[in-house]
Amino acid sequence: QVHLVQSGAEVKKPGASVKISCKASGYTFINRHIHWVRQAPGQGLEWMGWLIPGDGKTKSSPKFQARITITRDTSASTAYMELSSLRSEDTGVYYCARLTGYSLDLWGPGTQVTVSS
Amino acid sequence: QSALTQPASVSGSPGQSITISCTGSYSDIGGYDYVSWYQQFPDKTPQLLIYDVTKRPSGVSNRFSGSKSGKTASLTISGLQAADEADYFCSSYSSGGTWVFGTGTKVTVL
């Protein structure tokens, strides 16, 4: 079965970092780009960045460029997204998703991140 | 990189057709035929509905159709059903190898 499994919910204090994992199964991990998308409570989807699992190349939205690190472990078919210097506005659900062509055809279940003092 | 503009809400009666617009720029929608639409039910994961402007993934009803003119893409839902009540987001590939999402539209079936 093809799916993406994400790590569990996180609660962080302002200024801390969070690292979320996204494990792919049922397809060849290195063959498809992985994207990260955020959704604040009651808000829309926000594109954060992508990863090419084959060579580790990444690109991120200018909004997150200074705070985001996207990596992968090909032996574990897992992508990671780390966001630093967290603030309350970073509270939300973080999704990883697989890119096919130019669209996201497979989404992880989401990881809830809560930033609170 | 600004979000694509969608109406906050669209409503219609069962059986009617509704259209959701998604307006961007020549750096995204106007420059590429890589517009996607996603359907999201409350507290659920987004699901791909339309890709490459007009194409439907296997399993998606042909009541959903997409189009584009200039900087504006559109999603039309024909034969509106109660089960179509959800949030809908457009997305486009953008210059520089980035992507951008729309602001989202809540569809209500009256």
In words, what does this structure look like?
The complex is a heterodimer of chains A (about 120) and B (about 110). Chain A is mainly β and about 120 residues long. Chain A contains no helices and eleven strands. The mean pLDDT of chain A is about 95. By secondary structure, chain B is mostly beta strands. The radius of gyration of chain B is 13 Å and the shape is globular. The mean pLDDT of chain B is about 95. Chain B is built from no helices and nine strands. Chain B has strands at about 10, 20-25, 35-40, 45-50, 65-70, 70-75, 85-95, 100, 105-110. In chain B, strand 7 and strand 8 form a beta hairpin. In chain B, strands 1, 3, 4, 7, 8 and 9 form a six-stranded mixed beta sheet that branches. A three-stranded antiparallel beta sheet of chain B has the order 2-6-5, with no helix packed on it. Classes of the chains: A mainly beta (about 120), B mainly beta (about 110). The interface of A and B includes residues 59, 63, 95 and 107 of A.
Q: Write the H/E string of chain A, N to C.
A: EEEEEEEEEEE
Low-confidence stretches of chain B: none
Uncertain regions of chain A: pLDDT < 50 for 5+ in a row? none
Q: Average pLDDT of chain B, to the nearest integer?
A: 97
Q: Determine the mean pLDDT of chain A.
A: 97
Determine the N-to-C terminus distance of chain A: 40 Å
Query: What share of the residues of chain A lie within helices?
Result: under 10%
Topology record:
The complex is a heterodimer of chains A (117) and B (110).
Chain A: E1 3-6, E2 10-12, E3 18-25, E4 34-39, E5 45-51, E6 58-60, E7 68-73, E8 78-83, E9 92-100, E10 103-107, E11 111-115
Parallel strand pairs in A: 2-11
Antiparallel strand pairs in A: 1-3, 3-8, 4-5, 4-9, 5-6, 7-8, 9-10, 9-11
Chain B: E1 9-12, E2 18-23, E3 35-40, E4 47-50, E5 64-69, E6 72-77, E7 86-94, E8 98-101, E9 105-109
Parallel strand pairs in B: 1-9
Antiparallel strand pairs in B: 2-6, 3-4, 3-7, 5-6, 7-8, 7-9
